[in-house]
C-alpha cells in the first residue's frame, strides 16, 4: 500500500527540459515571464522583489521564500511596484511547447546582471505538467502559492543554488530532478501549513482508516472494489468506512473511485493511441466497454472516442485550471 493520493497526482508533474534559470539583478529590473507554463516556481536566494500576476494583486517575495505561480497567464517579477525598468521577456525565444517548458538557461539577459549590495538573486523553474491526472492537483492550487524559508524547501534550495551556478555534464537532468524535489517540498509545506485548508483528499490521507482506503484505491484502481471489500481490507465495518470516507473526502468511496478511474482512462486514451476502448476499459477496472463508455461520458461529458480525438489532435500537455 505504498501509493498515496498526493504521490499519484504528482505522476504527471515531471521536469523534463524545463526552463531553469539563475540570475542576479540590480535595480531597476523587470522580468516578464511569457511562456505560459502550467506552474512556475520562483525562489529568491538573496534580496527580494515583487511577483505581479496578470489580473491579481502583487505578492512580495523575500530572501529564502518560494512562490509557485499557476499558469497559463503571464506574470512579471519586478524590483518594486511601479519600477521604471523596461520589462525583459523571459523564455519567448526558447520555448518548447510540446514539453510545457524550455531548456535550461543560466540568466536571461546580460542587461539585467549586477552584483551590488542591493542585488537580487533569483532562481526560476517553469514546470511542465502533463495529463488529466495532474490537472486534479492543479485544481487544488491557488493562482499564487507562497512557502516561507525553512523546512524541506531549504534543503532542496541549497542543492538547486549550487547546481544552477555550475556548468557540468548532465546538468539538465540533475536540475530536473532537483526541481521535482523542490516542487514536492513546496506543495507539501503549503498544504500542511498552520491554519491552511488542504484539499480534502490530502487531509484524509492522515486518517488511519480513510488513508488506508485511499492508498488501496490508488494502488489497485482496476480491482473490483465494493464498499464491503474495501472495508474488509481496512479492518472496519462497511458503515464506518462509508461514513468516515464521505465525511473526510466529501464523497462516497465508490464515487471517488469512479472519478479516479475516468481520470486514469482519460490519460490512457491519449497516451496509448493503439489501445482499443475495451483495452482501456479493462485497464481501469471495467469488463464491459459499454458500461465504461457510459460512465466516462457521464463523468467527463464526452464519449471516450470523442475525448481521444480531441486529445490526440494536439500535443499532450495539461491546461491549467481556471482561476
Automatic annotation (TrEMBL):
Family matches, as InterPro entries: AraC_lig, AraC_XylS_family_regulators, Homeodomain-like_sf, HTH_AraC, HTH_AraC-typ_CS, Tscrpt_reg_AraC-type_HTH
Transmembrane portions of the chain: none
Gene3D superfamilies linked: Homeodomain-like (1.10.10.60)
UniProt superkingdom: Bacteria
Keywords: DNA-binding, Transcription, Transcription regulation
Pfam families: Cupin_6, HTH_18
Residue span, HTH araC/xylS-type domain: 211-310
The keyword Metal-binding is annotated on this UniProt entry: no
PANTHER family from the UniProt entry: HTH-TYPE TRANSCRIPTIONAL ACTIVATOR RHAS, HTH-TYPE TRANSCRIPTIONAL ACTIVATOR RHAS-RELATED
Official protein name in the record: AraC family transcriptional regulator
Organism in which the protein naturally occurs: Cryptosporangium minutisporangium
Lineage: Bacteria, Bacillati, Actinomycetota, Actinomycetes, Cryptosporangiales
